[in-house]
Amino acid sequence: MNSTILDIAKLAGVSTATVSRVLNNYPFVKEQTRNKVLEAIEALNYYPDLVARSMVKGRTYNIGLIVGTLGNPFFAETSEVIIKTAEMYKCHVTLCVSEENETKLSEYVDLLCNKRVDGLIIGSIFKGVTIPRLKSSNIPYVLYNRKNVFEDADYVIQDNFQAAYEAVNHLVRLGHRKIAILHGPQVFDSVAERLEGYYKALQDAKLKTYDHFHQEVHFEKVDADLESSMNRMMEDKNRPTAIFATADFLALAAIEYLMNKGYRIPEDVAIVGFDNLRLSGHSMIGLTTVGQRAEDMARLAVERLMQKIEQTVTGNSSEEDSWKIRLKPELIIRRSCGAHLKDMIFNP
User: Fold this and answer.
1) pLDDT digits (tens, 9 = 90+) for 110-147
2) Considering only CA atoms, which of 289, 306, 242 is closest in space to residue 268?
3) I need a labelling partner for 41 at 20 to 30 A (CA). Which of 118, 164, 202, 236 fits?
4) Nearest residue to 323 (alpha-carbon basis) of 335, 338, 308
C-alpha cells in the first residue's frame, strides 16, 4: 500500500503542512527540514496520487501542444523548448501533430479538452478558420508562431512583415534586381505577412516582379511541389539572381535543387531563408536567414499559459492582462547571400 503524507510527517517529525510545502516546492522551508522530509519520502518510497492531486488543486498538470508538422524543423525545435519549459512548472505535455490539416486541428482541440488538460499551446492555427471548442470550453490557450483573425487570443509571434522586408532589402542592397520568393500556403497569417513584406521591399526599391518569381509550396507535398516550383522559376529565360524563402527548410531544399542543377550558391543564385534553424548555421551550409527567436517564442508561450492557468484556477483572470507580442527580427548574414563577395555584379 502506498505511503501517505501523514506517514512522511511522522517519520520526519514534522507537520503534514510542512510535508505539503516540500512536495509543492514552496519557498521559506528551512534546508534542514526540507532534507529530513526528502529523506523520509525516499525511505517510504512515496509517490503522490496524481488523480487526488488534480481533484484538490483543480488541475491535471498536463498541457496540450498542437503543432503543424515535425517535418518542419521549426516545430521540432520549438516543441523541445516548450516541453522542457513546461517541466520547470511540473507539467507534462501531450503533443499532437495536425499535419497542417484544419479538420485534424479541430479534432485535436476536442481531444485535449476532453482529456481535461489545464491549457493549450497552438502553433499551427489557420488565419481564417474558427475553432468553436476554444471558446465554449473556456480553456486557457496561447498561440505561437501564427495567429488567427477570429480568435482574440494571447499570442507570441514574429514581426513577419518587417522581417521579410529586411531580408529582401538586404538582397537589394547587395545589388540584386531579380528577387524571387518561395513561400508556404497563404492560409497561414505568418506566410501572408512575409509575402507582404517581400512585395513592399520590391515596391520601395522600384523593382519589377514576374509571375514565375512567386512560387507556393504546399506543406503536405513539399518534395513534389518544390521541384515543380523551382523548375518554373529557373527554366524561364528571365531567371532570378536571388531567392527569398519564407522558411529555412524551403531555403535548404532550394539550395539542394540548385546545386544538383549545377548552380553555384551564392555566385549564381543568392539564398535567404527564415527561421534560423540549428542546421542553417552549419559551416557547410552557411544560410543567411531571419532569426525567428524560436526559443524565446516557445518559452514565452509556456510562461503566458502558466499565468492564464493560475488565473483560471484562482478566478483572478483579467481581460486587461492580455499578451499580443511581436518579436523583433534579426537578420543573420552568412555565406549563402553573397555578402562576402564584395565585387559581385548582378545583371539588372
Assistant:
1) 999 988 899 999 998 888 777 878 778 888 999 999 98
2) 242
3) 118
4) 308
β 330-332/324-327 pair status: unpaired
Which residues lie closer than 8 Å to 234 by C-beta, 6 or more apart? Answer: 240, 258, 261, 263
What does each C-alpha distance from 245 to 12, 195, 290 come to in angstroms?
61, 10, 10
Kindly state the cell numbers that stand for 65: 501542444
* pLDDT tens readout for residues 211-237: 999 999 987 777 788 999 999 999 999
Going by C-beta distance under 8 Å and a sequence separation of 6 or more, which residues neighbour residue 98? Answer: 66, 67, 68, 69, 104, 105, 108, 124
End-to-end CA distance of the chain: 80
Fill in the DSSP letter of residue 141. Answer: E
Residue 313: how many other CB atoms lie within 10 Å:
14
pLDDT exceeds 50 at position 55: no
Distance from C-alpha of 51 to C-alpha of 175, rounded to nearest angstrom: 64
Give 269: exposed, middle or buried? Use CB within 10 Å, 0-12, 13-18, 19+.
Answer: buried
- Domains, the chain, in order of start with CATH, read 5-48 (1.10.260.40), 60-152+293-327 (3.40.50.2300), 160-292+332-337 (3.40.50.2300)
Is residue 118 within 8 A of residue 307, CB to CB? The reply is no
- CA–CA gap between residue 331 and residue 166 (Å, rounded): 7
Q: Which of 106, 71, 113, 136 is nearest to 277 (CA)?
A: 71
pLDDT in tens, 144-159: 999 887 667 899 999 9
* CB-facing half-sphere around the CA of 312: CA atoms within 13 A: 17
Q: How far apart are CA 344 and CA 270, in angstroms?
A: 11
Q: For residues 60 and 119, what is the distance between their CA atoms, to the nearest angstrom?
A: 10
